[in-house]
Design goal:
mainly alpha, 2 domains, 10 helices, 87% helix, 0% strand
């Protein structure tokens, strides 16, 4: 019985090898003899057909691609120096601190909301609560608010990293499901397993992997780009906050 079991397993392996060998032979023969234009046209799939053949995993991948594009557009608008430390705002802010116009400083920060304004408001609140607050404590207050603003600056870019990691995994999962579906033909009945149909099923299964990489690679590139920009903007915010702190300490009421 043990010999019969090994013989049956070997027969199945040989049958699978024959199936793939036959598919490779057919493909090589068609390539060598030149493909018929009609068959080439049939092999060219539209985007809708590719999406349909990819299976249900294409839907979350499509959602991930839309989300990635939306985040990239959002970061392209938000992650700019004029949105974090506006030049004219910074100049006007320092001028009002120089004149000790703290009411005007607060009005300016409330009117033109930006990370530098939020850090300045935190410093004003601390000074109003304790006009005699020492410089290290005021610096800590501004630094704490600056770190919170830095999280808002760099946080959305993390979404791109998540998409870059998850999208290829979704594509691979779709490929595994497609491969299982393709090999199910062989598992049910070896005699009815046609090499062309099996090869077509495998190629369709790989669609999800390709689409997952198509979504994940641009998302990873976008994450690297905007992470670098966010780091530069955070450094600019720290420098501007230091200027505000210095100006407040010089003009504070003795």
């Amino acid at each position: 019985m043990d010999h019969g079991h090994r013989f049956g397993f070997g027969s199945r392996i040989a049958a699978l090898a024959a199936v793939f060998g036959g598919a490779g032979a057919v493909w090589a023969q068609e390539t060598a003899s030149g493909a018929d234009p009609a068959s080439v046209e049939q092999m060219t799939l539209s985007l809708g057909q590719i999406f349909e053949k990819g299976g249900w995993t294409m839907y979350p991948l499509l959602l991930a691609s839309v989300l990635a594009v939306a985040v990239i557009l959002y970061l392209a608008v938000v992650l700019r120096a004029e949105q974090v430390t506006p030049r004219l705002f910074r100049k006007d802010l320092l001028a009002r601190i120089q004149d000790r116009d703290y009411v005007g400083v607060r009005d300016l920060c409330n009117t033109r909301a930006n990370p530098l304004g939020e850090v300045t408001l935190a410093a004003l609140d601390c000074l109003e609560a304790d006009p005699r607050v020492d410089t290290p404590l005021l610096k800590d207050v501004m630094q704490g608010e600056g770190e919170r603003q830095a999280m808002f600056i760099a946080g959305p870019a993390q979404v791109l990293l998540d998409i870059a990691v998850v999208a290829p995994m979704l594509g691979l999962f779709g490929t595994v499901l497609g491969m299982m579906k393709a090999f199910q033909v062989v598992a049910l009945d070896l005699a009815k397993a046609k090499p062309i149909l099996l090869a077509a099923g495998v190629s369709e299964a790989l669609i999800t992997t390709a689409f997952g990489l198509l979504v994940g690679i641009p998302a990873m590139v976008g994450f690297a780009f905007f992470r670098s920009r966010a780091a530069r903007l955070t450094a600019s915010l720290e420098a501007a906050a230091s200027e505000v702190l210095t100006a407040l300490m010089r003009k504070r009421t003795p």
